[in-house]
User: Fold this.
Amino acid sequence: MRTPVPDYLEQVLGECDADDGAVADYIPELAQADPDRLAIAVSTLDGTVWTAGDAESSFSIQSISKPFTYALAIADQGLDGVLRTIDVEPSGDAFNEISLEPSSGRPRNPMINAGAIAAHALVKGDDAEARFARILALYSRLAGRDLDVDEAVFTSELDTADRNLAIAYMLRTVGTLQADAPDVVRGYTRQCSVSVTVSDLARMAAVLAAQGRGPDGTQLLEPHVSRQVLSVMATCGMYDAAGDWLTTVGIPAKSGVAGGLIGVLPGQVGIAVFSPRLDRHGNSARGVRVFERLSRDMGLHLMEVSEAARSVVRRYVEDSGAAVHEVSGDLRFVEAERVLRSLTEEPEGAGVVVLDLERVHRVNDVARRMLLEGVRRLHLDGHEVRLVDPSEALGEGRGGAGRGAGPDSGDGYAPERFEDAAAAVRG
Ligand code: GLU
Assistant:
């Protein structure tokens, strides 16, 4: 069978083909772009990339670089350090507005140029070149290949960078920027001139969707960094159309003036679209329409999350009298609450209770603590709790991996661990 995913993507591009708007021309080289190109890529978290349209076309990343440089600034300076310099409030202003928060002198957020220039300068490096080299290395790691600068775009943009220079000098006057203003604008302009395809951008977006993990499982960004970046993209990523975007499309996104647009569906996919003509907000006109369409078809909107699975736990009683609670799926607060509800069916007494987590893949921190508390309370009620937890979802046991004493549930009680439910029932 041939997967229908690329055919579906072709179909979406075909239906969103009618264009309007105009290519950005304040950077002369961008005005040379073929305005009719249209491409899409969708990357799953395990690194499979589906594309349609002019997916081989490369273009400059422009403002889509901002979230990734912000991520590196946080990794280098810590979140508090970055927040002291750059706020996280949507500005409702155009991307190159020369404005700062009046009371603190901080740029309002890292997605407008003032904040992005400040974020660029927060990246560690002995000099401007070292700083940029680290930025390019991060983008390359996220994209899974060595990226490069489009020198023609870079020169063209640097020649016309007066407004960004003005912003950098303004940042210096309020003490937000210590480095040399022309140096920083040069580096920031190089960062905006990195050449990418939709596949590169979809892969980069997918790392954000995977809490900072690359397709091979390597942690490329810390989960809290990824969360911060996505939050800022959700509120500030689409310039002065951010509210409209969040209500209609409903996922964190970032656009660039060359016509690129990325969207991140946390836990599922990274998506990138390219079409150079921009709407009046500076966002790719067809890019926005493609995303609106995908959001409708694929149910992407983050505020439209389906209810958690109802059947995460099944209770049965063995001939021996042992009650087995067989749990499956990923456990978060809601699922753990269902498991606890199932455990409340055990009357006080000295019976054996088996908590079978063999079919559980992932347990988040709150769910883990809830289950351990359930184990502790069963024990207080007089039960002997036996645990089946081959992937150590509840934490490492006292007796090492496999069979033996499980993790401490509090009060010094550790349930005995068994390799499967049958062994646990046998005891
Ligand atoms: N390099 C562009 C600038 O700073 C980026 C703007 C954008 O993509 O929105 O003017």
Remarks:
- Residues 62-63, 95-96, 113, 157, 164, 192, 256-257, 282 surround glutamic acid (CB under 6 Å).
